[in-house]
Amino acid sequence: MSGSLAESLLDTPSGSRIIALEVERGYRDAKEEELTVAFARYVRCSHCMRKGCPRCDYVGWNVHQAAAKVLVPRGATPGTRVTVEGAGDDLGSGGRPLVVEIVQAGPRADELRAAQADFEGKLETAWGMEKAARGGHRRRRGILASAMVLLLLLVPVGRWLAKPGAGEPCTKGNDCRSGHCIGLRSGPTWEPKTSARLDALTCTDSCTTDLDCPESMRCRGPRPSELEGNRERTTQFVVDMPDGLSCVPRGY
User: Fold this and answer.
1) Measuring CA to CA, how many Å separate 4 from each of 10, 13, 56?
2) pTM of structure
3) What pLDDT, on the 0 to 100 scale, is given for residue 7?
4) What is the CATH number of domain 5-137?
5) Where in the chain is the domain with CATH 2.60.260.20?
6) How far is 250 from 252, CA to CA, in rounded Å?
7) Residue (of 126, 135, 128) closest to 1 by Cα position
8) Element (H, E) at 19
9) Which residue from 87, 92, 194, 244 has the least number of CB within 10 angstroms?
């Protein structure tokens, strides 16, 4: 509560407030009686101890409408003050004393009631301001947390997008988005693969039709002549093709 409006309101020399109790009776012969006074008071949230939780709208304290029973002494006259222990504002270590002054209708009663209304209005304002401030802080933290999660999700996506796609040069499978780098060679398949001329290394990707591939590529599966151990003669072929249909440069 340090530095808050609520703190300045509650920072009184005696630590207590004076509430008016207006009565109409003959004081000299009046008997002792118990009356009730209504007021609003500051109460620290017992659930979170001012850290902020749903029970207090994350403010850490609430404004409670309270009622205190006041035992008016016999023969009490206007100006008599009665202290009700523990009935006042509660900062977490128990309620402060509440001072109730016996008054009759008139200037003093009006003065005390105006002071009470002013205090309670400011207390409500302090609560609303702190709720708005903490709500904004929570929203900013929520946005920051969401941004961090999004960033963590986008980093691997960004790395994947940075890799070459189908038809782009590569040196090994891990270079490609698909994880498949195929070799384009020229020469008969019955010759050792290392003796056939390497035309290029390019990334491929799985496909269903030619429409799934870049314009410079078409969709096909491995030819019989490209399978391991096949000695059929051909001039251009692809090595390291993945199983199934893949995008292959036109002409191969």
Assistant:
1) 10, 17, 16
2) 0.49
3) 63
4) 2.60.260.20
5) 5-137
6) 6
7) 126
8) strand 17-22
9) 194
What is the distance between the alpha carbons of residues 252 and 248, in angstroms, rounded to a whole number? Answer: 7
For residues 176 and 166, what is the distance between their CA atoms, to the nearest angstrom?
8
Token pair 């078409």 is at which residue?
218
Distance from C-alpha of 90 to C-alpha of 93, rounded to nearest angstrom: 7
Q: Where are the alpha helices (DSSP H) in 72-212?
A: 107-162
Question: Which residue is associated with the tokens 């093709």?
Answer: 241
**pLDDT tens per residue, range 191-224:** 555 566 788 899 999 999 999 999 999 999 887 7
β-partners of residue 198 are: 185
**Token digits of residue 244:** 């199934």
Amino acid at 126: A
pLDDT > 90 in the chain, percent: 22
- Helix, strand, or coil (residue 210): helix
